[in-house]
Specification:
183 residues, mainly alpha, 5 helices, 2 strands, elongated
Length: 183
């Protein structure tokens, strides 16, 4: 071994690292997937805060409805989408498989389902905006349907990646437990 103050140990040229232990690939993949899921959870929290702010401002009449439009019906059930994120944050530190499965199932129910309903609910308004150029709801001067469709497009991608990475993470965790059982 080399030391800070002296020459390299005799009898080695530095290529004797092959015998050393390495971190198993499923552990490396688990760390990488957890990092990606955390990033997606943070993006989801930002989307959730924006929608919660719009609903709160509208319900409490803090500003005029001309500045911030009243929420669409799909936004209320989407507020429940915080539940899968909480379960996901609880699952990651200790590799809790049950919480991650609950997070994945509830993501479909509380995240994706309201977004699908929202895209169908807003379609006639978007069609009217496209055909006639008329908008009746606005969010800070922008057409509310355009802004909310942009939010839906981003949110669908975030939730799809969350579910995909969660599934891959579950596979990695199961790989790790199967290897432990073989030993």
């Amino acid at each position: 071994m080399a030391s800070r103050a002296g020459p390299r140990a005799t009898g080695t040229d530095g290529s004797d690292f092959q015998h050393r232990e390495r971190v198993a690939s499923h552990y490396q993949m688990s760390v990488a997937l957890k990092s990606e899921i955390r990033k997606l959870n943070i993006v989801h929290l930002l989307i959730w805060v924006l929608i919660a702010a719009q609903v709160t401002v509208s319900q409490l009449s803090l500003v005029s409805h001309k500045i911030v439009a009243s929420p669409y019906q799909w936004e209320y059930p989407y507020l429940l989408s915080i539940i899968p994120t909480v379960f996901c944050f609880l699952a990651l530190p200790r590799n809790n498989i049950s919480y991650l499965v609950i997070s994945m199932i509830s993501a479909g129910l509380f995240c994706v389902a309201p977004l699908i309903y929202g895209s169908m609910e807003m379609f006639p308004v978007a069609q009217q905006l496209y055909r006639h150029g008329k908008a009746y709801r606005f969010i800070f001067g922008f057409s509310a349907v355009s802004v909310m469709y942009l939010v839906i497009v981003i949110a669908v991608q975030v939730h799809a990646w969350q579910i995909y990475y969660s599934k891959k993470l579950l596979d990695q965790w199961f790989t790790g437990t199967q290897e432990k059982k073989k030993k």
